[in-house]
């Protein structure tokens, strides 16, 4: 008997899923647990594996279809099985509501109108990423022009930009469930912070935003203390603002085993102490390592100048240093040309002067 291929349920509160793309065609042979299609829910975009080995048959829903969970979306024909072995109700999609024509008691109630032939819409081919973007932004793929045989991410972006320039609206990335919930709760989805990929608004974000809005009570407005920004604080603020505007910012956390580095530092300090010199700090070693890394990756040692990336000829490493009343960043200039001993000496001098 053919194996039903049902729309799976990925979490407890999931009611449906959107088909993004079929990775296999009808008639293709698939193996057990081989990815057959990509679907998207409010929380994930995931590839769905085959429930059995055999030939894929009777695909009932195409890309873009929103299918309730546990609905049969296709069948897997086992060895020796054919389409004649499919259940009788497999000719139409599972779960699809069929509306019967309304009964008419009187012939006079029937208004005849000329029949209008509705042209069938050709299915639109799109990359998985483009299909997900279109779904989240509420874009009909059939409206998106593409120079290639299928719609890509760049085509969606160009289409959105053209729509924004023509009507002044900005498309807000959000899941369909989030849009429905925002409409029901009377929440402007444009001001809801999104926690999904690329800031995409999800249903939980709308619920949280609504809860905060309801619980927030008017509070007495107190006088705000105004502190003049002068001297070093003004300089720090100006340079931080300039840095934020001119350089791309990322946050990266990496756990590194520095046992060998500390062993090297220990040997260096033994030599330094025997010669009556200063001990080498871990910061000095890190500055030298960063400078070495920047020398091999010039695009990291760059700033933005309008539409141009300015590759800097010098490698200067700043070291944040806390002082009373602020934070300063002494700079080790041309750090890639200096020894660890020299960097260590300059760091000591700069920290003392700070």
What would the average pLDDT be, to the nearest integer? Answer: 77
CATH class of one domain equals Alpha Beta
What are the low-pLDDT stretches, counting only 5+ consecutive residues below 50?
A: 91-118
Tell me the CATH topology of one domain.
Chloramphenicol Acetyltransferase
Distance between the termini: 81 Å
Strand order of the largest sheet: 1-8-6-3
How would a textbook summarize the main sheet?
4 strands, antiparallel
Shape: elongated
How are the SSEs placed, and which strands pair?
Layout: E1 3-6, E2 16-22, E3 29-30, E4 35-40, E5 45-49, E6 54-57, E7 66-68, E8 72-77, H1 128-137, H2 153-167, H3 176-185, H4 203-215, H5 231-246, H6 259-274, H7 282-295, E9 302-305, E10 308-311, E11 317-318, E12 321-323, E13 326-328, E14 331-332, H8 340-353
Antiparallel strand pairs: 1-8, 2-4, 2-7, 3-6, 4-5, 6-8, 9-10, 11-14, 12-13
């Amino acid at each position: 008997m053919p194996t039903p291929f049902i729309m799976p349920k990925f979490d407890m509160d999931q009611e449906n899923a959107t088909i993004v793309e079929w990775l296999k065609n009808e008639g293709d042979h698939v193996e057990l647990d081989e990815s057959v299609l990509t679907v998207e829910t409010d929380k994930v975009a995931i590839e769905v594996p085959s429930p059995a080995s055999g030939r894929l048959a009777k695909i009932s829903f195409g890309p873009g279809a929103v299918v309730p969970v546990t609905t049969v979306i296709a069948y897997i024909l086992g060895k020796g099985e054919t389409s004649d072995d499919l259940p009788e109700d497999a000719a139409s999609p599972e779960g699809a509501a069929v509306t019967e024509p309304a009964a008419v008691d009187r012939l006079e109630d029937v208004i005849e109108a000329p029949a209008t032939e509705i042209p069938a819409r050709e299915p639109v081919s799109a990359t998985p990423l483009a299909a997900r973007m279109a779904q989240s932004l509420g874009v009909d793929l059939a409206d998106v022009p593409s120079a290639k045989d299928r719609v890509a991410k760049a085509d969606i972006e160009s289409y959105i930009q053209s729509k924004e320039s023509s009507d002044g609206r900005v498309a807000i990335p959000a899941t369909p469930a989030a849009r429905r919930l925002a409409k029901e709760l009377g929440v402007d989805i444009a001001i809801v912070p999104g926690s999904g990929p690329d800031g995409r608004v999800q249903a939980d974000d709308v619920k949280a935003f609504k809860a905060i809005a309801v619980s927030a009570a008017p509070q007495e407005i107190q006088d705000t203390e105004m502190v003049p920004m002068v001297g070093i604080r003004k300089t720090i603020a100006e340079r931080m603002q300039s840095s934020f505007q001119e350089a791309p910012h990322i946050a990266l956390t990496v756990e590194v085993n520095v046992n060998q580095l500390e062993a090297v530092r220990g040997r260096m300090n033994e030599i330094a102490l025997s010669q009556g010199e200063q001990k080498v700090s871990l910061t000095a070693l890190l500055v030298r390592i960063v400078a070495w890394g920047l020398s091999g990756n010039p695009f990291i040692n760059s700033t933005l100048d309008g539409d141009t990336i300015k590759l800097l000829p010098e490698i200067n490493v700043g070291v944040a240093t806390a002082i009373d009343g602020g934070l300063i960043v002494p700079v080790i200039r041309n750090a890639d040309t200096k020894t660890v001993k020299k960097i260590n000496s300059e760091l000591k001098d700069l920290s003392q002067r700070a």
